[in-house]
């Protein structure tokens, strides 16, 4: 088993659309924020390349990436860019690459979480080892970049078996390293009577279906998260708010933990190939049971954990029934929350997952002759 035998100098590359800070824009931003914090706590020297306004940014201007500037707030979107933004990001990554080439001696490895193709090519252009984590289904620009690497020192890891399979079909092979959460911050709650949904308020996360599921079971549900698609929110979510549903906006982690932990059950309603679903692990760590649509990597996150159920994607009646049963079980058997949290800590704790990642970063940073495939368990 290969372990980190020395402290590393790591350049972490974050997704560029939103700053890394609380309240987190989404699960991806939360994961990278935790990654920087954890690597530094382990003594590694970490430099961050991320959107302007992020926590942990240093004084290397070329590693400060632009954020979208929308003319009107209602135009803000998680899937579209304002005019000129894509070109600005391309230029920013060009500048970051040139700075990296100049300062190559300052870094051992790049820990890449960007959804942009450019950092993938840095292993070739800057002759630096790169570990790219695949957080999404295959993206064409990233596939094209992966085909240009030649024999450069590059390793791909994926956040779930489902994600790894999807990329493998497109010719990119990846080890599987599921995401982790800080179970010291996501603490066990006391439960409650309301249901909860948390995450990005976007069509592919489908919070409107969570409202429908709660309504089908005559339950009340609280929704929390950043609005990533204003049109969708206004058309599909707002009309459903009222007696059965309340929206509380984006919350910082402590407040979100209290909300989720004081709920009877958490609903997770992806209508896309969900790569991981960090909100699942977060809810389970509070002891709150989870009822979810079975798609993408969802079943992997729930595997072996009590207090969980999956149904076919889109079946709101089945979801409501499953959630009601989990809520009733929790009310009858309070120790279920204890068992659920224990299983979540064992399976999803940040420390367990990131020690594996630490080994991969250390392994990838070694000279070619010294590399062997690390022994990894998941």
Largest sheet features: 7 strands, parallel
Distance between the termini: 14 Å
The CATH class of the largest domain is Alpha Beta
Please tell me the CATH architecture of the largest domain by its name. 3-Layer(aba) Sandwich
Rg value: 21 Å
Total helical segments: 13
Largest beta sheet: what is the strand line-up? 3-2-1-4-5-6-7
CATH superfamily of the largest domain: Glycogen Phosphorylase B
Find the structural class using helix and strand composition. alpha/beta
Q: How many strands appear in the DSSP assignment?
A: 13
CATH topology of the largest domain: Rossmann fold
Mean pLDDT: 92
Helicity range = 25-40%
Count of the separate structural domains:
2
Approximately how much beta-strand content do the residues carry?
5-15%
Reading the helices and strands in chain order gives EHEEHEHEHEHEEHEHEHEHEHEHHH
Tell me the overall shape: globular
What are the segments in which pLDDT stays under 50 over at least 5 consecutive residues?
Answer: 368-378
Domain Glycosyltransferase subfamily 4-like N-terminal: 26-185
InterPro entries: Glyco_trans_1, Glyco_trans_4-like_N, Glycosyltransferase_grp1
Keywords: Glycosyltransferase, Transferase
Protein name: D-inositol 3-phosphate glycosyltransferase
């Amino acid at each position: 088993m290969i372990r980190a035998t020395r402290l590393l100098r790591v350049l972490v590359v974050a997704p560029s659309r939103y700053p890394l800070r609380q309240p987190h824009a989404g699960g991806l931003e939360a994961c990278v924020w935790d990654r920087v914090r954890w690597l530094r706590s382990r003594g590694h020297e970490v430099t961050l390349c991320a959107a302007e306004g992020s926590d942990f940014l240093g004084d290397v201007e070329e590693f400060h990436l632009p954020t979208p500037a929308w003319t009107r707030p209602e135009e803000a979107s998680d899937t579209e860019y304002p005019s000129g933004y894509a070109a600005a990001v391309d230029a920013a990554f060009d500048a970051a690459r040139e700075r990296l080439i100049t300062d190559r001696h300052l870094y051992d490895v790049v820990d890449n979480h960007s959804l942009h193709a450019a950092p993938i090519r840095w292993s070739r252009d800057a002759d630096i080892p790169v570990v790219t984590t695949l957080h999404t289904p295959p993206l064409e620009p990233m596939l094209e970049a992966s085909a240009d690497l030649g024999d450069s020192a590059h390793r791909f890891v994926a956040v779930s078996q489902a994600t790894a399979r999807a990329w493998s079909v497109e010719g990119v092979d990846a080890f599987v390293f599921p995401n982790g959460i800080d179970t010291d911050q996501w603490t066990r709650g006391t439960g409650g009577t309301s249901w909860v949904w948390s995450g990005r308020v976007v069509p592919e996360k489908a919070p409107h279906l969570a409202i429908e599921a709660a309504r089908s079971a005559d339950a009340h549900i609280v929704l929390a998260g950043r609005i990533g698609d204003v049109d969708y929110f206004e058309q599909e979510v707002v009309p459903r708010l009222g007696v059965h549903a309340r929206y509380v906006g984006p919350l910082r982690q402590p407040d979100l933990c209290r909300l989720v932990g004081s709920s009877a059950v958490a609903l997770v309603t992806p209508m896309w190939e969900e790569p991981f679903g960090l909100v699942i692990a977060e809810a389970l760590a509070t002891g709150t049971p989870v009822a979810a649509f079975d798609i993408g990597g969802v079943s992997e996150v729930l595997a072996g954990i009590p207090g969980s159920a999956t149904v076919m994607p889109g079946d709101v009646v089945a979801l409501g029934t499953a959630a009601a049963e989990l809520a009733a079980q929790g009310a009858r058997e309070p120790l279920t929350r204890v068992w659920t949290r224990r299983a979540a800590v064992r399976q999803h704790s940040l420390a367990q997952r990131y020690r594996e990642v630490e080994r991969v970063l250390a392994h990838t940073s070694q000279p070619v002759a010294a590399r062997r495939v690390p022994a990894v368990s998941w």
